[in-house]
């Protein structure tokens, strides 16, 4: 039954305007980050690593949290409109499966976004005159950034189910990205849910995740995902028709 729910979610996203955000929004921080790198190239001497810090400066704290907020809010938009969620609840499926299907759908959108962001990063590097991209390192950033981003996805799906609004969850995602910057600055980025994506992508210090340990990072991300998934499933199950 979960597969049928996932198919239904995929059909709702087909030809959706949300894909405009997917394609266009990552291009903006890529352009800004590359321009900033070229402007400070005399100071930023670590080539690909320096370019990455400039890209993630704009992507992780502003654009990507907003994108995730848009994804999750849109996934719930049809259900929140005209009491359609009540109609969904009458289907012969468990309510926890409904939440899980939306979580998996948003997580897949996050994965596609992360691949697109990394592709733009490599393209920007070639445009900036860099050669020999560190493919393995980029893959690490993408994988751990996706894991950290799934924590935000779980939170945002939960918020979008609780709040019958499209704009408010997006605003919360944007605020979360800004607070994530503060927690990272105070060296608590490995604990705050909205910092984990930036922490996993090594937005500020490319060696920080290696020093703190991959196991600890994975454990915290999985723990948060489980907590918010359980909360979301419980809240969805207790929603009144």
Describe the protein.
- The protein is mainly alpha-helical and 241 residues long.
- The protein has helices spanning 2-13, 18-24, 27-39, 48-80, 84-89, 95-127, 135-162, 167-185, 196-200, 208-212, 214-238.
- The longest helix has 33 residues, at 48-80.
- The chain is elongated.
- The mean pLDDT is 84.
Q: What keywords describe this structure?
A:
mainly alpha; 0% strand; elongated; 241 residues
Layout of SSEs?
Layout: H1 2-13, H2 18-24, H3 27-39, H4 48-80, H5 84-89, H6 95-127, H7 135-162, H8 167-185, H9 196-200, H10 208-212, H11 214-238
Helix pairs in contact: 1-6, 3-4, 3-6, 4-6, 4-7, 4-8, 6-7, 6-11, 7-8, 7-11
Briefly summarize what is shown.
With 241 residues, the protein is mostly helical. It has 11 helices and no strands.
Give the number of DSSP strands.
0
Q: How are helices and strands ordered from N to C?
A: HHHHHHHHHHH
Main β-sheet: number of strands, strand sense, barrel status? none
Q: How would you classify the helix and strand content by structural class?
A: mainly alpha
Bulk shape: elongated
The average pLDDT value, as a whole number, equals 84
The number of domains is 1
The radius of gyration over CA amounts to 18 Å
The helical percent reads over 70%
Termini distance?
Answer: 21 Å
Could you tell me the strand content as a percent range? under 5%
* Uncertain residue segments: none
Query: What is the count of helical runs?
Result: 11
């Amino acid at each position: 039954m979960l597969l049928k729910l996932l198919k239904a979610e995929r059909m709702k996203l087909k030809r959706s305007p949300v894909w405009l955000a997917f394609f266009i929004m990552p291009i903006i921080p890529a352009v800004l980050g590359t321009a900033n790198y070229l402007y400070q190239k005399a100071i930023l001497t670590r080539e690909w690593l320096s370019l990455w810090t400039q890209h993630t400066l704009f992507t992780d704290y502003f654009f990507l949290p907003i994108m995730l907020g848009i994804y999750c809010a849109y996934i719930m938009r049809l259900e929140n409109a005209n009491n359609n969620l009540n109609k969904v609840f009458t289907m012969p499926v468990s309510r926890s499966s409904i939440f899980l299907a939306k979580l998996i759908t948003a997580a897949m959108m996050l994965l596609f976004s992360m691949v697109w962001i990394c592709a733009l990063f490599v393209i920007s590097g070639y445009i900036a005159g860099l050669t020999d991209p560190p493919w393995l390192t980029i893959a690490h950033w993408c994988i751990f950034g996706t894991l950290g981003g799934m924590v935000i996805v779980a939170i945002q799906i939960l918020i979008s189910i609780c709040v019958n609004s499209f704009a408010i969850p997006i605003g919360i995602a944007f605020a979360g990205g800004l607070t994530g910057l503060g927690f990272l600055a105070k060296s608590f980025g490995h604990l705050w849910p909205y910092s984990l994506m930036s922490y996993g992508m090594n937005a500020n210090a490319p060696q920080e995740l290696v020093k703190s340990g991959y196991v600890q990072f994975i454990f915290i991300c999985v723990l948060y995902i489980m907590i918010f998934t359980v909360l979301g499933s419980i809240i969805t199950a207790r929603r009144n028709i």
